[in-house]
Design brief:
Elements: H1 13-26, E1 32-36, E2 50-55, E3 62-67, E4 70-77, H2 79-88, H3 106-117, E5 119-123, H4 125-131, H5 136-164, H6 167-188, H7 199-205, H8 210-221, H9 232-256, E6 277-278, E7 283-287, E8 290-294, E9 299-302, H10 304-311, H11 326-335, E10 339-340, E11 355-356
Parallel strand pairs: 2-4
Antiparallel strand pairs: 1-2, 1-5, 3-4, 6-10, 7-8, 8-9, 9-11
């Protein structure tokens, strides 16, 4: 099959014009109208729909119209629905104990992203004021932390599956974890979208993530070569590589891509040596009320400085100037399992930098003391 549509196409002038005329001539009462979907973010294919979202018209539900030879798929949205999405994306308020902003249904998350990335065709002054509250930085933060939560849950499943000898589940869960980390780093780089099918197109087209695209593809798709099934030893190696790549991406997203889109990614580590190195089974999650390192057994309250130190641990010694007291922090991280080492790690008493915190666990408990 051949097509004249380029990979990564956006709306053509004919499609945009047809949608505009449809709104003005046939959708009486429209107050807000925008084009959304894959074409709105430059991911269109030869079969991509022209998706038009409209608020305030007499239309209800969904309908298709032919306008000037272009089929336009129209989705009616209520004003209340759109205002809820605006409220969701106006302020990052997810806390360790209340993660409801990160666990909204996928349909709502997709709607939020469409609203942010859509191409406006019509907007009244009142809707312009409402939409001015929608903050792209907040949406990026939601996607970063939502995917970090997904990663931590999958990493726990990997740990449990390997402990039980369930190789297939460990491999599958590690793939899901790495895909979640890829989504987080894309959001940190400013590529905001919801849906797995375009993941590698987005990694390849985004300058910041492009150097990681091929290695990530190999980790996810060719890690076992032509093997008929993953052997336990090979599976453990692969899942560790996937999780280590993933939690490095998560730390980078939460630290460097939080306030503004990422400018660069760290190099991909070629090896992890025998000294202190971060555990593949832990994930950093940034909440409005602090930082968490969440592992398969529990979650711990840490600082940004401690996450920066943990991120850089690859067994090559302690990074210079990464932390006010790196030896003590590494000892505490090692004690809770967030750091591994084949060499002795001095034990430092106390909980100066890594503190047990029920609200920061993988599933926050409500019986913690304020």
């Amino acid at each position: 099959m051949t097509s004249t549509l380029d990979v990564g196409a956006e709306f053509s002038a004919a499609q945009t014009g047809a949608a505009e005329r449809l709104v003005l001539e046939r959708l009486e009462g429209a107050q807000l109208a925008f084009l959304g979907g894959s074409l709105a973010v430059g991911l269109g294919t030869a079969t991509s729909d022209v998706d038009l979202y409209v608020v305030g018209s007499r239309l209800r539900g969904e309908a298709s119209f032919e306008q000037d030879g272009v089929e336009v798929h129209v989705n009616a949205m209520s004003g209340g629905e759109v205002r809820k999405l605006i409220e969701l994306g106006s302020d990052y308020r997810a806390t360790g104990a209340d993660r409801s902003q990160l666990t909204i249904p996928l349909e709502s998350l997709s709607g939020l992203v469409r609203l942010l990335t859509g191409r406006q065709l019509l907007i009244t002054p009142a809707w312009a004021r409402d939409l001015s509250r929608l903050d792209a930085r907040v949406v990026r933060r939601i996607l970063i932390s939502r995917n970090a939560n997904v990663f931590s849950a999958c990493a726990e499943d990997v740990f449990g599956a390997l402990s039980s000898g369930d190789v297939y589940t460990a491999v599958a869960a590690s793939g899901l974890a790495l895909e979640a980390a890829c989504e987080a780093i894309l959001a940190a780089a400013g590529d905001v979208y919801v849906g797995p099918k375009f993941l590698f197109r987005r990694l390849d087209r985004t300058p910041v993530t492009q150097p990681w695209c091929r290695p990530l593809w190999r980790l996810l798709n060719t890690a076992f070569g032509a093997a008929a099934e993953p052997l336990p030893e090979a599976a453990e190696t692969v899942v560790r590589q996937r999780l280590l790549a993933g939690n490095l991406l998560l730390a980078t997203a939460a630290i460097e891509g939080w306030d503004q889109p990422l400018a660069a990614l760290p190099p991909i580590p070629s090896e992890y040596r025998h000294g202190p190195r971060r555990s593949p089974y832990f994930a950093p999650v940034r909440f409005a009320d602090g930082w968490a390192l969440i592992g398969p057994g529990d979650g711990y309250e840490v600082s940004e400085e401690t996450v920066r130190l943990w991120q850089e641990l690859t067994g090559r010694g302690l990074p210079a100037d990464a932390h006010p007291d790196p030896a003590v922090a590494v000892s505490e991280l090692h004690r809770v399992g967030a750091v591994e080492s084949d060499l002795p790690v001095p034990d430092a008493a106390g909980e100066r930098f890594v503190r047990p915190s029920p609200r920061f666990s993988c599933r926050p408990r409500q019986d913690w003391e304020h």
